[in-house]
Amino acid sequence: QAPESFPPLWNEAAVHVLRGRMKGIQGHCNSCYMDAALFSLFSCTSVLDSMLFKPFLLCDRNVQSILRDEIVNPLRKTGFVRAASVMHLREQLTEKGQCSSFTNAEKDPEEFLNLIMHQILGIEPLLRLQSGSQEQDCYCYQIFMDKQEDLVIPDVQQLVERSFLSSELKLVEIPSCFIIQMPRFGKEYKMFSKIIPSLELDITDLLLDSPRECCVCGDVATLECL
Predict the structure, then answer these.
(1) What range(s) does the Peptidase C19 ubiquitin carboxyl-terminal hydrolase domain occupy (predicted)?
(2) Which residue has the higher pLDDT, 41 or 188?
């Protein structure tokens, strides 16, 4: 445990602390979905650090302290988290949630995020999406798309844009945090062998009613051709 708070890792410090053997979050008993999600959310960014400290309306302080002191702080301090620490969190999620299999079964990351952010910590939804005239609030966006032959090794920018286009979605507002789940794959099938991380994400074309430049004349556009 590391009750003292540590900032997220940056640049050379991130490489020094996180690279090498016995680094990251130790996997155990189908925990990979949670290990990867927690590493992505906290190792090198402070965007969601409010989850660790803020007294939200429905906040479960026990779960919050386990997340902060047994997982996030050790990860940022030493670059390693024991499987027992994640299991402690999984046991609490099983107790607080409606599902009894959080300690042994593989879950969808979205199910884990909805449980810990909404039901346990009481965080407001991070995303507002619109499809047609319908709005929906959510905590993360999972990329759904058909196989496209011209995308061999895509980057995240391409996948997000094409997924929004195929699903006819728009962002109602600029999100404070944009959690994106890559396309699903199993042991028998992978949609892409590799996905290149986009270090920046341009959401100009994804925003609803956002002023944009006409690609023909350069003035403010009034029509959009999908």
Answers:
(1) 24-203
(2) 41
